[in-house]
Amino acid sequence: GPGLSLDGTLNSLQAVRRRFPELSPRVCAGFMSCGRLALLRMTLKAFVAHMERSEPDVAYEIAWVDQGSGPDAHNVPREVPIEHPLLWRVNYGVTYGLNTLLFALCRRSRFAMTMEEDWLWREERDVVP
């Protein structure tokens, strides 16, 4: 099955979404990053795989604020379907980034969850006993 390879890359996961863009999202998954785009890619792909496999009835959208990761950040939305990518050239800080995610990019959804690029989505931890 899907998992991490020895070099830390995510293998055998594809970021394929049944509905994109989501027109009536119930949940907004908000991500922030500053560098560490490899971790962001792994987390996004694992999140999409989980939602498509385990939560197929939940209408979700993805919002992403990047704070100065450089030119490679422009490739991420080509690899993972993201409704609201926002790429800043500089780091404006966590507070400004979260406010932008929650009050601007995620405003259409009833619920929002936030993650950073180093909060790796681990499938074995998706259910709390």
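the 2nd protein, sequnce then structure:
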Amino acid sequence: LDATNKYIELYGYYFDHINNISMYNFTQRYKSILSSISFIGLTGNISYDEYGNRQNGLISYCNYATNKISKIGYFKGDKYSDIMINDNRISWPSSFIIRNVIPPKDSYNEEINSAYSSLQIALYILSGVVMLIILIY
């Protein structure tokens, strides 16, 4: 709402200008206004970067099933973080089962689990070799 009020203050009535300027110009104006807005909100400091994206805003992904909301993942909201989703917490709709639809899996998590399993096996083998060397000497 602060950005809309600022837009009206600078450029006049909001909707009159949307029809009379290109969407690119409108977007550029709005992004420049957003980057100047900063306040303390319910979730902490609210501010935006030069692209109009919220800076350091935590975004939670939730699943609503059987009248219950459960958190399944999050995004930290900065350019250095990945979206973290726990596939095992997702409750897929029953229509997926009825239609025999296979829910998508996060291949990244599967690769990590596979690498972790391989690492465990290598550590067990290495531990066995070390014990054998200790027993021999």
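The mean pLDDT is 76. The first strand starts at residue 38 and ends at 41.
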